[in-house]
Design goal:
This protein is mostly helical. Helices cover 76% and strands 0% of the residues. It is built from three helices and no strands. The protein is elongated and about 105 Å long. The mean pLDDT is 80.
């Protein structure tokens, strides 16, 4: 294996130093296109989420009524089982 010459050491040192100096300067800065892209992504994400409107309120009322009816049926079934035991 050949010994590394002084010029090669200096060249390697300068190259590594240049990398350490240049890398911090490559900070990611948000430009107008980046901001527009984020706003577009947020708009697309929010598009699929329903707003609170009359249809959503009616759907929630139907869900609540179905749940209440299910609870009443369970109670009725329990009463029937209790009556059958007696």
């Amino acid at each position: 294996m050949k010994p590394i010459r002084f010029n090669q050491r200096i060249s390697a040192f300068l190259l590594i130093s240049a990398c350490f100096i240049a890398l911090p300067g490559c900070q990611k800065q948000e430009g107008p296109m980046e901001k527009a892209g984020k706003e577009f992504d947020q708009a697309v994400e929010n598009f699929g989420q329903p707003k609170e409107g009359p249809v959503e309120r009616a759907g929630q009322a139907v869900d609540d009524a179905a749940e209440a009816a299910g609870q009443k049926l369970e109670q009725a079934g329990e009463h029937i089982q209790d009556a059958a035991k007696d």
